[in-house]
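Help needed: design a sequence for this.
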C-alpha cells in the first residue's frame, strides 16, 4: 500500500479539512456501473433484433442498419472504457488516487470523449439515413442530406478539438511536461449546445412527412411519439451540458465527473435504442403479433350482422374496405419494409403506412377483377408463410404449406 503521507505518490495533496482514504475510498459513482450495464444490454438487444428483422425477416438491410451497428460498437467500447476508468479512480476524490492511476484515468477520459461523440454521431446519421426512406419529396431530402453534412462536420470539428486541444497532444494526460492547452470552457460549451440544437432539429424533420399522411389521427400521434422518443436523448444531452461548467472548473475533477459518466451512458445507448425502434415492427408482427393485434381480436369478437360480418375471404367491396380499415387501426406503426416492394411507383417511399390494394380493370366486357391481400397474406405471407395464391390477375405464388385460390369477379349492369 502506498504511503498516505507521501504526497508525491498521489495525484494531489490532501486539501485542508480533508482526509486521504487509501483503502476503499468514498465514491460518487455508485449508480454508474448499473446504469452502464443496463443501458448497454438494452441497446445491444435493440440492435440485435433490428439486424435480425432487417436481414432475415424483411431481407432488406440498408445503410442505416450498418450505421447503427457502428454506433453500438463504439458505444460498447465507450462502456468498457468507462468501467476501466472507474477502476482507476473515476468517481473518487483526486487526492485518493495514486499518481500512476490518475495518468491512466486521464488517458481513458481522452479516448472516452472521442468514442462518446463518434457513437452519438453515428446514431444520428442512422436516423437521418432512415429519414431518406420516408419520402421522395425533393426539399425534404435536401434538408436531410444537409443535416447529414452538418452532423459529419460537427463530428470532425469535435474530434479535432479533443485531439489537438493540447500541444503536444500527450500533455493532456501528462500535465507535467512542457507545452500548452487551450481553454476548455468556451469550446466544450459551444460544442455541447450545438449538439443539443442539432438533436432538436432532427426530431422535427419527419413531422413534415407524417402530418400530411392520410391515416387516423391516433396513428399519426403514435408515429410522432416514436420519433420523438429521441427527445430523451436530447434530455440527456441537456443534463450533461448543465453539469459541464462545474466539471470543467472543479479541482476535484475525478469526483465531479460521475454525473457525466452516468448521463454519457444514457445518451449514447438511448440514441442507439431510438435509432433502432422504428425498424422493429416487422419482428413483432411475425413473432409477437398479439402485441399488435389485440385491438383487432377485441373488435372481431363483437357480434356483427350477417350483411357486414367479415370472413377471411369476403368478396364484397364493403368487406374489403372494412377489413382494410380494421388492419390500419390495429397496426399502429406499419412501415413499407413489411410490404412487397412496389417498384415503379413514384410515391412508394411515402406510402409507409398504407394497406396494399390491387385493382385490375378489364375493358370491353365492363368487368373488374379485384384482389385484396388478406390479413395473413399482406402481413405474414412474405414473413414466413409460404403457399400458392392465384389472384384475379393471373399471378401466382407457390411454396410449402396451404394453397389458397381466390378469384373474385364483379360485374356491373348496363
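Sure. Designed sequence:
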Amino acid at each position: 500500500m502506498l504511503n498516505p503521507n507521501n504526497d508525491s505518490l498521489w495525484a494531489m495533496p490532501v486539501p485542508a479539512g480533508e482526509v486521504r482514504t487509501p483503502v476503499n475510498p468514498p465514491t460518487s459513482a455508485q449508480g454508474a456501473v448499473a446504469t452502464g450495464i443496463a443501458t448497454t444490454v438494452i441497446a445491444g438487444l435493440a440492435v440485435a433484433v433490428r439486424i435480425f428483422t432487417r436481414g432475415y425477416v424483411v431481407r432488406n438491410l440498408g445503410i442505416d442498419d450498418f450505421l447503427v451497428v457502428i454506433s453500438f460498437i463504439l458505444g460498447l467500447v465507450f462502456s468498457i472504457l468507462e468501467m476501466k476508468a472507474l477502476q482507476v479512480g473515476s468517481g473518487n476524490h483526486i487526492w485518493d488516487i495514486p499518481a500512476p492511476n490518475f495518468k491512466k484515468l486521464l488517458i481513458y477520459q481522452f479516448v472516452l470523449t472521442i468514442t462518446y461523440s463518434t457513437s452519438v454521431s453515428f446514431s444520428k446519421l442512422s436516423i437521418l439515413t432512415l429519414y431518406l426512406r420516408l419520402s421522395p419529396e425533393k426539399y425534404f431530402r435536401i434538408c436531410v442530406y444537409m443535416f447529414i453534412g452538418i452532423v459529419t462536420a460537427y463530428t470532425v470539428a469535435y474530434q479535432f478539438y479533443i485531439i489537438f486541444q493540447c500541444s503536444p497532444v500527450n500533455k493532456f494526460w501528462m500535465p507535467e511536461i512542457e507545452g500548452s492547452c487551450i481553454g476548455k470552457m468556451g469550446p466544450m460549451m459551444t460544442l455541447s449546445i450545438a449538439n443539443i440544437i442539432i438533436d432538436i432539429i432532427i426530431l422535427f424533420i419527419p413531422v413534415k412527412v407524417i402530418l400530411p399522411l392520410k391515416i387516423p389521427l391516433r396513428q399519426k400521434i403514435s408515429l410522432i411519439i416514436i420519433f420523438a422518443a429521441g427527445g430523451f436523448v436530447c434530455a440527456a444531452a441537456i443534463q450533461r451540458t448543465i453539469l459541464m461548467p462545474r466539471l470543467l472548473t472543479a479541482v476535484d475533477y475525478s469526483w465531479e465527473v460521475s454525473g457525466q459518466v452516468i448521463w454519457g451512458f444514457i445518451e449514447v445507448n438511448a440514441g442507439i435504442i431510438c435509432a433502432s425502434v422504428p425498424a422493429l415492427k416487422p419482428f413483432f408482427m411475425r413473432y409477437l403479433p398479439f402485441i399488435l393485434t389485440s385491438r383487432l381480436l377485441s373488435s372481431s369478437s363483437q357480434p356483427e350482422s350477417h350483411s357486414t360480418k367479415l370472413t377471411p375471404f369476403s368478396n364484397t367491396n364493403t368487406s374489403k374496405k372494412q377489413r382494410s380499415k380494421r388492419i390500419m387501426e390495429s397496426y399502429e406503426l406499419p412501415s413499407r419494409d413489411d410490404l412487397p416492394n412496389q417498384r415503379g411507383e413514384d410515391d412508394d417511399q411515402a406510402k409507409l403506412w398504407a394497406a396494399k390494394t390491387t385493382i385490375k380493370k378489364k375493358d370491353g366486357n365492363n368487368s373488374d377483377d379485384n384482389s385484396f391481400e388478406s390479413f395473413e397474406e399482406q402481413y405474414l405471407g412474405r414473413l414466413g408463410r409460404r403457399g400458392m395464391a392465384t389472384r384475379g390477375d393471373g399471378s401466382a405464388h407457390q411454396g410449402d404449406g396451404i394453397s389458397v385460390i381466390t378469384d373474385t369477379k364483379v360485374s356491373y349492369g348496363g
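The radius of gyration is 28 Å.
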